[in-house]
Amino acid sequence: MKRKIGAFDLINGLVMLLITITMIYPFWYVLCYSLSDMGLTGGSKLLLWPRGFSLDSYTVAFSNATIMHGFMISVARSVLGPLLMLFISSMAAYAISKNDLVGVKWIRRFLFFSMYVSAGLLPGYILIRTLGLTGTFWVYILPGVANVFNIVLIRAYVETLPAGLEESAMIDGATYATVFFRIVLPLCVPVIAAVTLYACVGQWNSYIDAQLYNYRNPELYPVQYILYNYIAVKAPTKEASAAAHGLITTAHSLRMSVTIITTIPILLVYPFLQKYFASGLLVGAIKA
Fold first, then answer.
1. Up-side HSE of residue 189: CA atoms within 13 Å toward CB?
2. How many domains does the chain have?
3. Which of 19, 28, 176, 178 measures 20 to 30 Å from 252, CA to CA?
4. 43 lies in the same domain as 181
5. Burial of 267 (0-12, 13-18, 19+ CB in 10 A)
6. pLDDT confidence of residue 61
């Protein structure tokens, strides 16, 4: 027997379809515009498919040494930053999961307090400058190696693991380091994948730190900050055309192509971590 579609189901389906279109179309428009022939777009505000087909904008983008260097800076910080963050944050999470650790309650309170209270922008800038991190690549990495939110997530997941695993390993002579690297860490793959996704996306999309600490060092600009400058400052069309050796493009199409270039890496990474994402967060949340 076929189920009848009621008015509520129909309205709900239409609303969800509308929401889906409003979420997907902006990206689709950017993609279509970046692939369109600039002689056929005519400043179109609505594109359902590319008008003509041209890769001139991408040729300009990939031939621009500044964009490619910024892309490599973003790749470097998106790989190195999450790796160091996982190394430090996971060990901190494992340590504070031990109730017999001296002062562990005060350590937890201190960490939780830092999540809700911030010193502010100016004190943070003064601290970074005092540490000598301004004007360096490490300003993108070191301030985020101890992420309290990720520490809390990993700790909640670690506490769901059977205590017998660690006890049996300790009886066999294993040290805390051996237990952590050989037993705990391999079992925490779901939550590690979740926090890795958070960290990678955060590092890849970040540009405020470059604006605050490295605005005088163009060689350290990540690609997102370069895109921000293209949108806010409006990159000159003549410079783009010269870089392309006469190819037909505009500053607006160049912005669109750089936007696609900065988006594709995240779209490629996310499917590989998606299967761990929900389970990693949910299991820890149930225990917490």
1. 9
2. 2
3. 19
4. no
5. exposed
6. 81
